[in-house]
Amino acid sequence: HPAFQYRPTDQPVETATDHTQRLTRHRRNVGEPANYWPQNSTLKIAMYDYDMDDEYVLAVKKAASEWLPHINLKFDFVSAEEGSVRITQNPDGSGGGASTIGTKALAESPATPTMSLPRDHKHRRFAYVVMHEFGHMLGAHHAHQHPDAYIPWNMDKVYGAFNRIAGLDRQGVQRNVLPLPRSSHYDYLPYDGDSVMHYEVNPTLTHGRWGQAESWSLSDGDIAWAKKAYPKTLPATS
Predict the structure, then answer these.
(1) Mean pLDDT in the chain?
(2) How far apart are CA 67 and CA 78, in angstroms?
């Protein structure tokens, strides 16, 4: 997997009537347990030289905190260059973001950011991108890459489109868009089309005009995954 999980920038959001029928209301996410953070830990999140009362920092904290009621971790945002998670603004100025997966951040050079977020904290997609990237930071993968998603991608269009809208090369598309392999390395629960970890799927990129809009809030499946990955009440040990 790449060090960063890239997000596409704006695409047209189709209406609900353009969507295919969702599967079941009991939906979940895709996690990578080997890279979950230690249970009940506090993650130091470095914002470099930002004042902690800066509007940008407050917007990041507000969106990231959507995960907190559902996990046993705490976030400690600091104005510093050192932290388990180090956040910078997207260097190309786009509306996308990027993040390492879970504790893979610890393998990065201390001088390297582990997450990038859009520059415009007032953009309508900002909170969504923050929640998405913090999902990666917690150890979640893309929901649309679930092997049971069965998205009928039109491969004649997919590579060119994601290169244009997200700057992904063919390997980047394979890592960030196409299905993950079935492996014990991942924690696969039922596919969740409503997940905040799901890319928008433009119907022009699929056969049969299969489409999926972005979900700009945590889904029931996201919450269920978070509670499973970081349960507030840990199982008793014998």
Answers:
(1) 84
(2) 18
How confident is the model at residue 79, as a pLDDT? Answer: 93
Residue 166, phi-psi category: left (phi > 0), alpha (psi -120 to 50), beta (remainder): alpha
Give the whole-angstrom CA distance, residue 96 versus residue 112. Answer: 18
Name 83's Cβ contacts closer than 8 Å, sequence gap at least 6: 43, 44, 45, 46
Pick from 218, 148, 135: which is nearest to 190 by CA? 148
Given a cut of 70, whether residue 110 has pLDDT beyond it is yes
The two structure tokens encoding residue 163: 């290169």
Percent of the chain with pLDDT over 70: 85
Please say if the pLDDT value at position 148 is more than 70: yes
